[in-house]
Design goal:
Layout: E1 2-8, H1 14-30, E2 34-44, E3 47-56, E4 59-67, H2 70-107
Parallel strand pairs: 1-2
Antiparallel strand pairs: 2-3, 3-4
Amino acid sequence: MQFQLSGQKIEVTPALRSHAEAKLDRLTRLDDRIVSLNIVLSVNKLQQRAEGTLTVAGKSLHAEANENDMYVSIDKLFDTLVTQLRRYREKLCDKHQREVYEARQAVI
């Protein structure tokens, strides 16, 4: 999996990078087919913004979070991405279960 962390109008410190990499484990536990994750951190006056694009096999998920603290915005970004990834995985599982059910009904 590729992981890219960049900043606009902000220097990405080793502490910010390690905080984001620590949260990355939550995503990899949900799905092992993650292709890449791109996170952009930016600052506009008092708003600290984190935007992320998660690319999974067959889908691209995007989320953003605005807070007063950069660490909190990174946490909320990962919470949103985890929620989106769970929904996507559930849709895939539901879709395949429905196809299996229909195939079994057609055989009987």
